[in-house]
Amino acid sequence: MKIPQMVVTEFRRLTRSPMAILALLALGIVPLLYGGLYLWANQNPYGKLNEIPVALVVEDTGAEGPSGFTNYGEQIADELVKDGTFAWHEVSAAEAQAGVDDSSFDFSVTIPADFSEQLVSSSGSEPQQATVILTTNDANGYLASTIGETAIKEIQRQIVATVNEQAATQFLGALATIRSNLVTAVDGAGKLVAGAAEAQAGATALASGTEQLATGSAALRDGLGTLAGGAAALPDAASRLATGAGQVAAGNAEIARIGDEIGAVTQGVVNDLPAVRADIAARLSAAGLSEAEVAAALAALDQIGARIGDGNARVQDAVGKLDLLASGSAELAVGTGELAEQAPALAQGAQEAANGSAALADGAGQAASGSAALSAGLDTLHGGLESLAGGLSGGVEQIPESTEQSRQNQAQTIANPVAIDTSQVAAAGTYGAGLAPFFIALAAWIGIYALFLIVKPVSNRAITALHSPMKITVAGWLTPALIGTLQMAGLFFVVAVALGFNFSNPLASYGIMALSSMVFTAIILALNVWLGSVGQFIGLVMMVLQLVSAGGTFPWQTLPGPLAGLHHVLPMSFTVDAIRQLMYGGDVSRAWADLGVLATWGAIAFVLAALGVARMTHFRTLRDLEPSLIG
């Protein structure tokens, strides 16, 4: 009997009655039902989140902030409803609680009454963290709670972005005001520097002048000290002078009196001289002298009279001078008396002037010292003001000039500084497409496993008639393998056409699916040949182990150690990886490596199956004679 004949005989056995055909069809479509229905149900669940009912409770009463009254709760609620990620229902707190309890809502989000107040507090002295309340109920579905936790994080991100943008806008506005004030301060500092330079020059001149003042006031102090020393003896001297002047005035007055008497006598003589001349002339004439003799006598007399006149003139002049002398000495006596009277006050004033000049000298010295310190201080002030002006100018340069639009753009960037630009080496597209490789591989195993419920691993008739283990093994493997490739063709049609999942390499993807089905056939065949129904049970155990270790849902790195080790050994892991690479457009070389591992598994399983068949052709065991407890 040849291999095709054995395959045809097996197919005839499987289709010998309507019930047999129905059983074959039922088991044959198991992969389509399992893989197709599951992937259909999970084709794109994230695209229908807007059908998930969620309660939204807004109790926020608003708050007065730096920019006026704001109700952040209402703003966020409006954004959530407008975004439409979920089927939001704005209800009361009691309705939300009842809805989460009775599954009317999958979860609820509550914005409390003090939400805005807590957000606004960040600009005050007692900042508080705002709270948004998420209420979940795992009895409504654990994934619903997980989605709720993810949603609340997105809400938190939106809130932070909104608040950060407003805070950044206020900060940048204040910074622009600071920059404007700094510009004004720079101008003022420049004027201060100029004024300080002038003040420094004036202080230098003041220091020089006060130094000269100190020198002059010291000299004045010394001179007035000498004057005060001399003025101290002035009252006694003035008193003595006044006494002497009074005596001189009295003597001069007596002399003037005598002179006046002499002047009166001489003036009387001069006045009496014409009468005396006339009398002498008369007497001489009476005496009988001739006119010539009388004239001669009178001529001599006239000479004497002339001298008397000259003497009288000199006497009168002297009398006048004596009178002036007496008058001046009297005035001198009066003046020296007044001087004597004023001399004590003059001496006291000189002493006071000396004392004042001493104080002036001390003050001038202090002024000189202070003006020198002022000059030095103004020099330091000028340097400090130059540093201040430079610092203010540098501060202005550090704060960029901005406009209202640029500040708004900056605030938006600060609020959301990082944009995620996703670069995908290979993309699944949807959640269902992401799960497809895993469920295709699992469906391939389940399909072959189910077939061996009705397909005989090997033909006892062929074992009895033939002694060619290889032919018997090929025939036993080929029948379920052919059905398995048909199963994969139907599943590929469902996934690629009916569900519309994209395959970057469709032919290669189907090739891996068909090869995996053939490999799984060889593995389950070997288990059945060696262990019978126990081997079939072990095939079920292997399916469970591969279900959890293939890394079809979560990354295999999250598995416990033993299961992570199985991930690198069991064949379904390599089927999943190969389909991912070919379906998503990933690394084809990895798919070739996975194909090599699968081929190795298939070859080893086929050899083991052939060895089992060879044993059966030469030996009979108790299992061959007695029915299996499991089968």
Explain what this protein looks like in three dimensions:
It contains 19 helices and 6 strands. With 631 residues, it is mainly alpha-helical. It has 3 domains: 3-44 and 431-619, no CATH class; 49-140, D-Maltodextrin-Binding Protein, domain 2; 173-398, Methyl-accepting chemotaxis protein (Helix Hairpins). A hairpin with a 2-residue loop joins strand 2 (63-65) and strand 3 (68-70). A 4-stranded mixed sheet has the order 4-1-5-6, sandwiched between helices. The chain has a two-stranded antiparallel ribbon with strand order 2-3.
In spatial order, strands of the major sheet run 4-1-5-6
Largest sheet: 4 strands, mixed
Which H/E pattern describes the elements?
A: HHHEEEHEHEHEHHHHHHHHHHHHH
| Cα gyration radius (Å) | 69 Å
Low-confidence stretches: 622-631
Strand content range? under 5%
General form: rod-shaped
Counting DSSP E segments of at least 2 residues, the number of strands comes to 6
Number of domains as seen in the coordinates: 3
- Global structural class: mainly alpha
Helix content: over 70%
Number of helices: 19
What number is the mean pLDDT?
A: 76
Distance between the termini: 28 Å
